Amino acid sequence: MRSDEVILMKIVILGFGAVGQGVARVISLKREHLLDKYGLQLDIVAVADRSGGAVFDQGLDPELLLKTKNETGKLSQYPDFGVEGFSGLEILDKVEYDCLVEVTPTNIEDGEPALSHMLKALKDGKDVVTSNKGPLALSFTQLSEAAQETGANFKYEASVGGAMPIINLAHDTLAGSDIESVYGILNGTTNYILSRMAKEGSSYEQTLNEARELGIAETDPTQDVDGWDAACKIVILANSVLNLERTLKDVKVEGISQITPEAMALAKKEGYLIKLIGEASQDVLEVSPRLVKEGSPFAVEGTLNVATLKTDLAEDVTVVGKGAGSIETASAILSDLLNIWKAS
Ligand code: HSE
After folding, report:
1. What tens digit of pLDDT does each residue of 6-53 get?
2. Is 155 found in the same domain as 53?
3. What are the Cα distances from residue 312, in Å, to 161, 169, 178, 246, 324?
4. pLDDT above 90 for 220
């Protein structure tokens, strides 16, 4: 039954690539469901990317945003409410909103511009939901402290494992257990490449191009294949789930570009698959190709991610889910938005 009282959450989306567009799509798809089940209306009051933006305090039409972007390539062409020349920070300054959804392309050098966007929002007391790994892997403590200072919510379930539940699972469902380590496949692009190579003998270059076409690879796909994307996720888990203060430079990283079809065939002959595995514990922080047994829970294919949390009370808890993809990642962002609303 529809709740009598409708609560409005005003959202600014910065970044309108695969994830930002996925967020607009799920807000549109779930509009009635959110109103019926929770009495919650998510209004997108501003969106911006490098092509420009659109701003309307009564809420932009998510489908029209997608159509405008797909047909013209420019958000600034949004009818009546398109804007040009505004930076993300200016939008956060001028627009009245409740929550920033920060989904600009990830930058693992200095975290910008996402880091400044998130810090501004949090310092202004606004909630932040993000899938953006770079700033979290580089400046997790700074961001968490900024949130604590103003009491703003800071949520980042989508930054690790796309739709695979892991951070909120550890914080909420496994609350009370100490989590000692995390071990898992945390990059969809490399898992897609490795499983296609193992199964069909496809070439590395061909499958990497396919991953790019599917929109699962990073804007700079070397971050995926060289292991840095998985390394960011391992750092985020080390900080948020294991309570270790670590940053990207603490991770020992090796990617998959040296893995040959011959090495994969040899592993297969012995009943193994080669997977890019991330591991975080008090003593280890590492991403590297490792052998996993065929038929084991780690023998997942395609864009799936998998992770085992080793806990003191619940022993091992293993989760699997789509680690990349526009709608899949947006589903985790939507769940964070809902959790913020539920806690308010
Ligand atoms: N490029 C990332 C991956 C996207 O392939 O897993 C999700 O973080």
Report:
1. 999 999 999 999 999 999 999 999 999 999 999 999 999 999 999 999
2. yes
3. 23, 15, 6, 22, 30
4. no
**Same domain, yes or no, for 205 and 180?**
yes
Mean pLDDT, residues 203-223: 88
Residue 158: strand, helix, or coil: helix
* Together in a domain, 26 and 113: yes
What is the C-alpha to C-alpha distance for residues 167 and 174, in angstroms, rounded to an integer? 10
Asked if 118 and 143 touch (Cβ cutoff 8 Å), the reply is: yes
Rg (CA), the chain: 20
Active site residues: 233
Residues 139 and 245 placed together within one structural domain of the fold: no
Q: pLDDT tens-digit profile of 234-287?
A: 999 999 999 999 999 999 999 999 898 889 999 999 999 999 999 999 999 999
Residue 57: what residue type? D
The residue type found at 63 is E
303 CA → ligand 1 middle, Å: 8
Which residue owns the Cα nearest ligand 1 atom 7?
324
Secondary structure, 3-state, 283-322: CCEEEEEEEEECCCCCCCCCCEEEEEEEECCCCEEEEEEE
Amino acid occupying residue 21 = Q
**pLDDT at res. 3:** 53
Residue 308 within a domain: yes
Residues whose beta carbon lies within 6 Å of some atom of ligand 1 = 162, 187-189, 216-218, 224, 229, 323-324
Ligand 1 atom, smallest distance to 186 CA: 6
Residue nearest to atom 4 of ligand 1 (CA): 324
Please give the DSSP secondary-structure letter assigned to residue 178. P
Q: Which domain holds residue 176?
A: 170-322
Q: Which of 190, 229, 234, 277 to mutate to test the pocket of ligand 1 (most atoms within 8 A of CB)?
A: 229
